[in-house]
Design brief:
The complex is a heterotrimer of chains A (about 70), B (about 270) and C (about 80). Chain B is of the alpha/beta class and about 270 residues long. Chain B is built from ten helices and eight strands. Helix content of chain B is about 35%, strand content about 20%. In chain B, strands 3-2-1-4-5-6-7-8 form an eight-stranded mixed sheet, sandwiched between helices. The termini of chain B are far apart. With about 80 residues, chain C is an alpha+beta fold. Classes of the chains: A mainly beta (about 70), B alpha/beta (about 270), C alpha+beta (about 80). Chains in contact: A-B, B-C.
Chain lengths: ~70, ~270, ~80
Amino acid sequence: MNLVIAGQTKEYPEGLTVSRLIEAEKVATPQYVSVSLNDEFVKSGDFGSTVLREGDSVEFLYFMGGGG
Amino acid sequence: MSFTNEQLERYSRHIILQEIGARGQSKLLKARVLIIGAGGLGAPAALYLAAAGVGTIGLVDGDAVDLSNLQRQIIHSTRTIGQSKVESARQTLAALNPEVKVLTHQGLLKADNVLELFRDYDFIIDGTDNFPAKFLINDACVLTRKPFSHAGIIRFQGQLLTYVPGEGPCYRCVFENPPPPDAVPTCRQAGVVGAMGGVIGSLQAMEAIKYLVGVGRLLTGFLLTYDALAMEFRKIKLPRRKNCAVCGPEPTITEPFDHEPPAACEL
Amino acid sequence: MPDFIIDATVDITDVVCPVTFVKAKVALEELEPGRVLAIRLNDGEPVQNVPRSLKDEGHQVLKLAANGDGTYDLLVRKGAD
């Protein structure tokens, strides 16, 4: 199935969960990433049970604490 | 709305703009902006806002100028090493534009002073370098209905969002709670290109100017990310979090509070 | 210049380009559309540029008259916002 990850279309196998996608995308800080799926935030407790579907759009949002 | 000839000259490039004009410039002259952190982000933001004639600029910072700051904190100079950052910044702003009133608050932003500090300002700029402060600023702005610009920078990356009460998600919608101390690298550990503060801090100043003048579209409901190595800007749409602890329909945060202080890691 | 009712006046002989135009523009911003501003300006660069710049901004130049002392009076009707 095709997913849109951070604006780029990518091919992934059916049945992929948000947790598996985080692994596959090699997210640097997997415990602290926020995920929006089709313009809705996914609760971090639901990453393992949220199954992605054809055409889903996923964004990863990362903490960035610097500025001083 | 009367300008001296000197003001007409100083702000001529603004006044000529149809979107700003005399009306917009006089709004800027009456405006009050508070900048938290006179560092990598706060330095360029403060400089552009003072140059723009923002009437009152408040600065909050508890640190003194250090040699390692000067790679990016362009409001300070070699001459002011050892001085408090707010005083060093005040001198630079006064030299740039003596018309601007600079109010300095030497010290850290805390739950017990945040409401008092924010009260008289129209717009807040988050130029801090730690998560407890970023969450505190967000909560205080949501609770007191103040618009603010949030930003973060690290290495070759930066990001920012604008919060306006009632017009989109807050910072806590995106990131529910601060990460544990040292779970996410800071600039001190990971480094940052000085010009990144210039890019992102200037965008924060631009958001403040647009808000104060009342023109254009703000970065509400979006996170703008900048990857300097890839030379890529992305504007990512941000939803509101349905049960956001501070801006949701049934908030559990009803007054500002201090999060665990950042780890005192020195490299 | 009896043919127009002048609503406001501004003297821009005390400033130089580009503040000449800016000062005239600010004076116009304070008026309602349709009102007439009389601008006193110097010969040379101001008289060449200010009327044209105001026209470009959508205002109507009504009249330009030399005062014989190196200054001019320019009448401008404010355009729609």
